[in-house]
Design a protein that fits this description.
about 260 residues
């Protein structure tokens, strides 16, 4: 991607498609900084025939399988984390995020980590950005579909090695100030619309799981979006960290024959 204009909104066009479609990078947070580009998104949603999210948020309650969010039966976080470390990070998370780790001990560490991240960032808005855009599209009568299914997303979480999840949660608790700074910096980068820095951040965070969490999903999302956009104008909102890079959604779309430019 030679054009490094800072924007979260990208237009994709192809000769035989009915018109331009759009890819918009989101963050699943309620922090006001994430809403800097929402007006731009509103206009494009109105122009399109259909909205696509990573998964259709209307699918979550019906498709929810609590077992996919919880640890295997018989396991708890108190068993997986040595007592001294558990007590230390429990105290940290209560202070910083208002979350008692003991009350969440039956849940997967990645689920707990995500909850803590959401609490660390400001909660200025009543809904997260992707939920807000989903509701806006529905208010316009636009059909909403998922690029992935909710179950597919949960299955990806389940494939993350438990040891990796536990180690990440413990490290977060042990270095909470650094982690908080990184999260706040990421919110600022998002506000700047710099998808290239967001991609590098996502790649670092994924560490040894890049193939599972990023690259494979990026390819699948690009293929499915390409199929959708071939027959209708689509506004596609997915996590901003998936857009840029040599194995990002925008690059894969170019390989599918789409012309990609800032929207």
């Amino acid at each position: 991607m030679k054009d490094k204009k800072k924007t979260l909104l990208w237009e994709i066009r192809r000769e035989e498609a009915p018109g331009p479609s759009y890819v918009f990078g989101t963050m699943h947070v309620q922090d006001q900084r994430a809403f800097a580009f929402r007006e731009q998104a509103y206009g494009k949603i109105a122009q399109c025939d259909i909205m696509a999210l990573e998964f259709d948020l209307g699918e979550a309650p019906a498709g929810m399988d609590p077992s996919l969010l919880r640890l295997p039966e018989g396991l708890t976080l108190t068993q997986l984390i040595p007592d001294k470390k558990f007590r230390k990070i429990r105290k940290v998370f209560r202070k910083v995020a208002g979350i008692d780790l003991y009350n969440l001990q039956y849940f997967s560490p990645i689920v707990v980590s995500n909850l803590i991240n959401e609490r660390i960032l400001s909660q200025d808005m009543p809904l997260s950005l992707d939920e807000h855009l989903w509701k806006y599209a529905r208010s316009l009568g636009k059909p909403v579909v998922g690029i992935e299914s909710y179950r597919e997303q949960l299955e990806i979480l389940r494939q993350m090695p438990l040891e990796h999840q536990v180690a990440s949660l413990v490290e977060m608790g042990q270095h909470i100030r650094r982690h908080r700074r990184q999260l706040l910096r990421m919110a600022e980068i998002y506000k700047e619309g710099d998808i290239f820095k967001l991609y590098r951040t996502a790649r670092r965070s994924a560490s040894g799981l890049r193939q599972l969490l990023l690259y494979r999903r990026n390819r699948i999302m690009a293929e499915r979006l390409s199929e959708l956009a071939a027959g209708q104008r689509v506004f596609c909102a997915i996590g901003a960290g998936h857009l840029a890079g040599g194995k990002g959604v925008l690059r894969y779309l170019k390989r599918e024959g789409w012309r990609v430019r800032p929207g």
